[in-house]
## 1
Amino acid sequence: MEAILTDCVQNSLRHFMFRNAIFLCERLCAEFPSEVNLQLLAACYLQNNQAYSAYHILKGTQTAQSRYLFAVSCFHMDLLNEAETALCPANEPGGEIPNGAAGHYLLGLIYRYTDRTKSAIHHFRLALSIDPLLWAAYEELCVLGAAEEATVVFGEAAALCIQKQYSHHGVTSPNLHTSNEDYNLVSSRNFGSEDVSPRQLKHTQGNNLRDIPGNYHGAAGLSGAASQPQNGGPSNMPFYNTPSPMASQLSGVAPPPLCRNVQPNGPNLNTVNTDGSPRSVVNSTIQAPRRKFVDEGKLRKISGRLFSDSGPRRSTRLAGDAGANTNANTTAVAGNGTNSSSKYLGSSKLSSVALRSVTVRKGQSWANENIEEGIRNEAFDDSRANMTTTSSSFPSGDVKSLDQDRATVPIGGVVISSSKIISGASEVLGLLRTLGEGYRLSCLYRCQDALDTYLKLPHKHYNTSWVLSQVGKAHFELVDYLEADRTFSLARRMSPYSLEGMDIYSTVLYHLKEDMKLSYLAQELISTDRLAPQSWCAMGNCYSLQKDHETALKNFQRAVQLNLRFAYAHTLCGHEYVALEDFENGIKSYQNALRIDSRHYNSWYGLGMIFLRQEKFEFSEHHFGMAFQINPRSSVIMSYLGTAMHALKRSEDAIKIMDRAILADRKNPLPMYQKANILMSLEKFDDALKVLEALKEYAPRESSVYALMGKIYKRRNMHEKAMLHFGIALDLKPSAADVATIKAAIEKLHVPDELEDNL
Amino acid sequence: MATESSESEEEGKITGGNQHLIVEDDLREMGKKAAWSVSSCKTGNGVSSLRDDNLETYWQSDGAQPHLVNIQFQKKVKLQLVVLYVDFKLDESYTPSKICIRAGDGFHNLKEIKTVELVKPTGWVYLSLSGNDPRETFVNTFMLQIAVLSNHLNGRDTHVRQIKVYGPQLNPIPHQPFQFTSREFITYSTVR
């Protein structure tokens, strides 16, 4: 009976019939009270959003799984202390964390929300080392600003780890071993274990190159290209931006990975192009060309120079080892370099190629390949370590790929399963590598790099809502609101139900003052999900745009209520409080936001603004400085930092920062204006006028520019010019207060300056 | 229903009143930062009824004329507009008739800036504080006093249902001499 009931319960859970599951499970627990059954019941409760029930039934249990479930329920009920003691009992400091990676991740979250950042980082890293595909842990690390490069995290070690997880594929074990060995070889040969990622990168690169050649090889006789060192071929493609030497060949052709124009190299290329995904053609097991592609990108970025060497190496090696095939491959690769093929390689090809290589490498089941690999490895060894690794892989890979291209049957039939795992793992890792690197860069606010990284993704993945919203977010941080608008609307078209990043989209529309679009967005979001904080943030932005700050504040408070841990809602509340001049509450809101996410530079900026208004200039400068540290590329923050410094009488520093801000973003007129202001107060009127003249070019219809110029002319007693500029300023319809000020200034134009101290 | 508010040429007589309160975007209500007091009031109809955004509740004075509403700020503020809600149909002899607005640093040096006569007002009545000179758009002051000098039908006490005081919007960018008007400037001027 127990077995039947258990089976029923699990079946119900699988089919999402929670009430049924709970009922049956309660019967099960009543009849056969045991901890396992209790865990099952708790799982039912948790699925049905009844964390409190799970909490009560699991209180006091000691087995690992029970403790984990108990911690989950505590976390949902916001009882972080209890959750922590459950996962990590105080009297057992060396105790095992239940459920491995998941437990570490949960513990990391708890530490993060209780402000113990170092422990949080430690646990997230542990979680990742146990389960390298735990993306959420990597995401948290990025948010905390402590993530290592994605290539390291999602690198070879990770692949090995995954392999081990699936190591029940007995047959494949030898192959696996070989693959492992391959990796090991490579590692030991080239660099030490630490260099896994670069190595891997190289491998991938090599692989990519290899794959590409393979592909080409199979498809078309890309013999011509063979000779060309395809160093960067595949890798180059994706990295059209990165100047990796490898890319030499491909760089020419490397358009953004998304473009699949790789044509020229014959069918292989074409095929690759078409699906952008790993050249399935070539490699049955290649699933994620992207991955490779990504790796390539990473590799590129990380070890561009390596590639350069590898490039030629590869080609030579290819030529040497693979003979015709390899050559063909190389040619193919080379061809890629020259043709668009490289491009395609870049995008999908690379991934496919990479995959192939990976598979090849990994799936050393193929005897020949092993041998070749061995040979290759040696050969490669002499060449750059990286190169060798890749090269070795390449040859093998190529060979394999070639086989694959032609042969429909994968060589390593037996090992397919294991090699499939390996290749599958590699593909996934490759994909995660790009995504992870992109996310990490965007959390570090190196937005241009992040954008480049994301562009390396294959079309299929790029056009998903998560990636598009990340890209949109990156554009937003670069203050490129138009581009962000475009990207976000594309994201909405892709998946209209997704709310991720929509709060940022609403802010973009707020900045662009598109009230129609913004209200439409808000309505849509609310109708999609009334309980999501992003919808209420959008609604609040809508009201704020119409200057109805009180209602906006109510909406943002609702968003906060829905999710206390949504930092941006707190920041927006703070902005509204400031607009309503309620500085105390504004400070509180910003500090709440910072408690949740101390790298939320908007809150630091908000605090700086409040202190600037309250004339507490040291505080203001400190806060702007913190914001600047987090996001050193924002010209807006730099200009405010300069204003604060100027108020502290450190005008030289202020001017320096303004210049930096001007350089950072040519389109931003504000730093120039501020600089002119500072110069004017330093009485360097001519410099100020020069700056303002330049500014007139950027923003010809800005009344304050003319007003300021008028003021400066007035100070220099050039009354006609002052009059002219004041007149223009008035024509440009300034605000009522400014109209009064300007008109007053005009009236007093002929009064000597000492008498009037107003302007 | 909204009726036109008109101002006749002689001595600022105002008739009618708007049913809806409509102010321009570049004005903001400044009353929240002020201390409000009245010269006298009946229990239950105190000064809070003037600021509760409820047109049903009203302030009723309870003493000799003139009845005063004092609005004191902590620092000098620019004020541009005073809006009162009074209704002859509801309040009849309690409706204010002659209103004088004074400004100054404190009780000792208030100076009259505007006097109006209301004739059967029914709604929001707008009293602009600006002078004719563009330089005098605002009144920069610590204190404002609204004095009800006489009522309709010679009533002794007065009812006022709501009072709002408006001044110019804050410059969203602190420490700027002028406000920004063009989109390029405004887009880059804040981080949100």
## 2
Amino acid sequence: MKAAPAPLLQSCYPSTFLERGVAIPFTTPLLAGARARPAERGGTELIVPNPAGGRGVYILPWLGVQQLCRPTVHDMRLHQAISGLAAISPGGIRAAARQVATEGLAGRAALNAAGRAAAGEAEERLTTNFLLLRLLIAQVEPGDAGALGTAPALLQERAQRVVARIAPRLGRSPADLARALEELAAIGHGIGVPGQTPPPRLMRLLGALRHLRAAMRGAARESGGDPATQAAMIAAVAELTMLAAERMIADAHALYADMAGLVLRWYQAGAEIAAMLARPDWLLDGWEQIALIWQLAETPASRRAALVEIAAMVPVLPRELGEWIGNPIAIEEVGRLRRNVTLNEDWRTGHLYDRIARNEALRALAA
Amino acid sequence: MKIGWPGRGVAGRADAPPGPVPASQARLARSLADSSDRKIGAIVGLIDAMADRGAADALIAPLRARMAPLRLSRPLRFSRLVFLPLDPLIVAGPDWRPGMARLPRHAILPLSQAVHRGLGEDAAVIEARIAGRSSLDHAMIGDLAPQLWPRAGEILRAIAAAADGGSEATGGRNGADPAIAATWAAAGLPADMLGPLAAGVAAILAEAPLLAVLERDAAHGIAMQDDAVQALLGRAAAWRASPYAGPAWRFLMAALLARLPLADALLRLGTGTAEQPVPPALYAAIAAALEEALAALERGADGPEEIAGADLAEAGNAARRIAALLDTLAAAGPGTARGQRAEALRQRLDGCCRARFAVALDHDVLPRLASPPGAQDVAACASLEQALRDLRRLEGIGRRFGGAALYDTLLREAAALAASGTAPEGLADRVRRVELLAGPEEAMAVLDAAPAMVAPMRVGQV
């Protein structure tokens, strides 16, 4: 006999982003909006929004998830991949999800998209690496700023030359300097450098969030009843997230104003800088899925349904955000805007396969 | 009360009661009824394009039951736009009886013309905007309907009020404007039915924008909200002063049940468990609408047998709609005579679902699994997966009424067929098909049995 799943928690106000967990792009409908985080006793646990659409979350190990629903093969594989991660982070989950998608278990479109996204991310990392190097040269040897040219072509050869020249001035070996820039790019490629074109992933996501906020404000104005309340809540959380993300990105970009200092600090306090650069990724985590759900909802009817779905999966803002931006935020106030809208049991079962297909389409659109 | 069809003059029109049909035409109509979906679309398109449909319109009468699920693109005419919210309640003339919460098709023309006149110059503006548009132009309908429907409702409510007193006893004279009295009589409709039918249609049109929202919500799994239904019933209660309150409420309730079969919120309100009391007569209208819905299913109109003729995608939707209505009926009167009738319908639904499932498996699924598309044929792979989803949707509803073991066996056999094959490049497709047919555990077993075919997991870390 299967054990009953853990009781539904009526509220969940995490203190930190890690406690909030990282959004997992599961395709099982009942796992929409699920997040993973390290469990207190080791391993990983999942936070699953109330599948009925109301308030509350389940906090479960994978075994509990299997008692709650029948995860798809894709989701079983994704869980296996996540279990193998040394640490839970948005980047780690993203990489795991792409890897699983390349097996084709979420469909051919998702498979192709995962390949494109991985290639795009590698290119972004390379571009950011290149641009960081240009910034360093411009600041350390202003007269030699054109030494790398304007494009990443022939980057490696020229970069090695320039790094070999600059590294002694910073008291480091060329290899050390090159590695520091690579590591900074590996963490910060999502936000890139100021003015980077085309905009890197998180800057594009920030744009999508702005668009979503505007759409939600419009929906709140034009709707009545529950849809208006849901849209207003989503717009409010999107606004807070967006403003905080802009601040985090500005803070991270400010580090690049003194590239030499940043590189030197990287050797001494790398973890602190890495955490700062990773903040926008943590903050915006989960919004890509939400923006895509809205994007796919093209008719008034499907937008109405999308509002209900999104309202249940809007990421909670942890108290840690107050520390990041230097101001406490009224998280519970935002939480109170959440409203119960029940979903028919029949819908959750009768449309199961269509909903899985929709979720696979989301995977095919994810960056 | 005298009921009957005059069978003269107007018999060949879409809006008129069918009169005697020549034998050759009847044979042609019967042969058309056996046509393929594609042929039906072509025939309806030809007839829609005729300036004077005349007798040709009678040819599509037997096709109407099959036309609905096909969602054919038809010219967006004024009467079609106005009467869209009435769609589920429109019946052929011979199937209509006074007192039913149904609109006989031949009543559409006189009522539509009355609305047209009532709108004055605005009608011409609407006509100009819909010229050349299709019934599937949801943007245009969404743009015009929210204002048009309630206004049409007001016009028809006024006509119902004016018709008060008109009856056979008064020689068919009533207070309605002479124009509608004339067209009503020409359509062969009983004079004393103008008031009730106009009131019924008016009640639905007044709430049509809300009905459309509720229907869309239901289609996306959002349960009917008590407060929305409460507000609707509150407005409907205002009809109590009208002599046509009964028909108005019955029509409104029938429209709700036809579009939102899982109407437990409606029933909760009707049974007095809501905070705001509902007039007893309004609850009686709810009960009457339920009875009518049950009777319609028993007659076969939109009943379980509809599933046999529907395409696979639509069959699941039809089964789901009927099942939801049966759930509502069962909730309304468990253990009663109505409960027994609902049970009989459940058995019919069970049989129809099993039969349609078996046909779908034999024709749409097994041949394609036996000779699956190549991994590179993306469109064929996607089409097969969609067929499997449609099959499971039908089976998901069907097994609620019986045959679980049979469904399981057939699905397992199909899954075994889907799993066969050894080509590494097709593994993911095979696993997905098995998952759709038999579930993730069985699909995982297929995947585990072929570890060498899957790229090893490489989990990136940051």
